[in-house]
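Possible race condition, two jobs.
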Amino acid sequence: MQSKSLLSCLCYFSVFFAPLIFPVIVYFVADDAETKMHARKSLLSHLLALITVAIASISFIFVLGAAVSIGTELFLLTVAGFFLFGLVNLMIIVWNIVQGVKLLKTV
């Protein structure tokens, strides 16, 4: 197995152990253009997951404070948003696994 393919696979699988740190390190350390491309793609997918979690957390904080005075409609909308963000994050994790397995099969 070539080390560049292994590093590329680990960039995608790092969603489980070091989502932002590992792809950044690989991007700056690797010499191969293909490895840098995979590190960049995996970093963008990890950032997308982080952004959805941040938006969900911030909206929960604001809605939790406002739900007491506004009512339950806004709270139910926020809960539906959480399910949507959870679904997006699940799709991101599955995409990372699929990309990592594809790279493993090409070796």
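Job #2 (started ~2 s after job #1):
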Amino acid sequence: ALDTFAEAFAGIASEDMISLGKHLRYFGDGFQTSKLIAGKRYWRIPVMDGEFLTEETTGMVRAIGGGNFLILATSQPAALAAAEAAIEAMKTLPNVIMPFPGGVVRSGSKVGSKYKTMFASTNDAFCPTLKGITNSELSPEIESVMEIVIDGLTFEDIAKSMKTGIEAICKLGAGSGVKRISAGNYGGKLG
């Protein structure tokens, strides 16, 4: 029997509730099972490396999404190393998450698109492969840009996390390949 599993638990006691496993369970395609433990319903969903265990409903709190900063570097390894250093420092702080895999985004967005059905699209001003084709924000030596997105309980939590991450990058020194730190401002329309 497989003993590996992933789990989704918010751990938040709140009167405001959201469905979590109530809808995710259907991914189990009829193989999901329900368990009632101490008056709370959980769902076990089979996945290819074991099972995914989740609460049916969970508490929630209002928070802020979409704090961010961009790391502009001379190479992809340099940008990634800087992003990883920032994430290591930032994940020690309470009340914030970096919601993308590994905390890093390689496909940063901008608000709007040439396609009417898309509310966001590739941030062409920060795409090294589009230098010379679009209105680029990148100087000639920049070959890679990574973004870190931060969600937090308060503006202050996000600001502290951003400062911590940027300071961790600065500690890497001038030889790290990082040439600039920037940020996106989407006027509350993204994130």
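The mean pLDDT is 90.
Logs attached separately.
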